């Protein structure tokens, strides 16, 4: 994708999510689609004892708010490009710091964070650029946890066609992307979900900055 195409794609994504924001918090959608990945991210953050944490493409702020309430943290940030999503996030929590910005150019100093996480949004990103910026903003030993939709079989071919702008990398490609950005891959596994939704099961990849 050229940079002009990438900008048009990002504008379309931002516009869509700004309009879709009010629908996003519907309980069954949250419970079946988004919560399983968020549960796994919380477990990774707890295991690593991260205290300065940013949730990138935070949407309406459900995960960042949970991180702030459920973990022992020093600072929690939620970052998104879509003002419509951030508007909902701001009304959810005043303890999280909500910031506008793209995943590929994060509003943090080098080495400022212990953990960067993102759920259900990586397919929208310029993936090498986003992972390079995750690596930049992490302190040594910091952790990046990324959940991605990882459709299997025929679904994978259909969704990941050459024409599709939103690319969902298969497991090996995710590991290569992490390594290419300078991370050591510490873990990768499928997110546990109910059987009926398994064809869409997502995957979590965890990388550590050396
Ligand atoms: C499906 S929602 C996921 C929200 C949240 N992470 C969750 O799991 O509930 C996708 C979000 O990604 C955001 N997004 C897409 N591309 C982005 C980018 N390049 N930088 C920052 N945010 C982005 C959209 O604005 C939207 O809020």
Automatic annotation (TrEMBL):
Keyword annotations from UniProtKB, A to Z: Methyltransferase, Transferase
SUPFAM superfamilies named among the record's database cross-references: S-adenosyl-L-methionine-dependent methyltransferases
GO molecular-function terms, A-Z: methyltransferase activity
TM stretches of this protein: none
Keyword Transferase assigned: yes
Pfam families, per database record: Methyltransf_25
Gene Ontology biological-process entries: methylation
CDD domains: AdoMet_MTases
InterPro entries: Methyltransf_25, SAM-dependent_MTases_sf
Residue ranges of every copy of the Methyltransferase domain listed in the record: 53-142
Tree of life domain: Bacteria
PANTHER family: METHYLTRANSFERASE (PTHR43591), RHODANESE DOMAIN-CONTAINING PROTEIN (PTHR43591:SF110)
Name of protein: Class I SAM-dependent methyltransferase
Organism ancestry: Bacteria, Bacillati, Actinomycetota, Actinomycetes, Mycobacteriales
């Amino acid at each position: 994708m050229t940079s002009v195409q990438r900008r048009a794609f990002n504008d379309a994504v931002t516009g869509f999510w700004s309009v879709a924001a009010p629908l996003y918090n519907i309980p069954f959608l949250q419970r079946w689609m988004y919560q399983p990945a968020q549960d796994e991210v919380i477990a990774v953050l707890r295991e690593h004892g991260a205290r300065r944490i940013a949730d990138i493409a935070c949407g309406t702020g459900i995960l960042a708010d949970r991180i702030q309430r459920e973990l022992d943290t020093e600072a929690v940030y939620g970052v998104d490009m879509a003002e419509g999503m951030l508007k909902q996030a701001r009304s959810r929590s005043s303890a999280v710091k909500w910031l506008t910005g793209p995943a590929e150019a994060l509003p943090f100093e080098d080495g400022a964070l212990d953990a960067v996480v993102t759920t259900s949004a990586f397919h929208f990103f310029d993936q090498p650029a986003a992972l390079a910026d995750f690596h930049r903003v992490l302190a040594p030993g910091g952790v990046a946890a990324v959940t991605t939709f990882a459709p299997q079989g025929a679904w994978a071919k259909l969704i990941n066609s050459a024409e599709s702008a939103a690319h969902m990398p298969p497991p090996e490609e995710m590991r290569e992307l992490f390594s290419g950005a300078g991370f050591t891959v510490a873990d990768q596994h499928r997110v546990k979900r109910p059987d009926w939704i398994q064809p869409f099961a997502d995957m979590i990849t965890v990388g550590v900055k050396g």
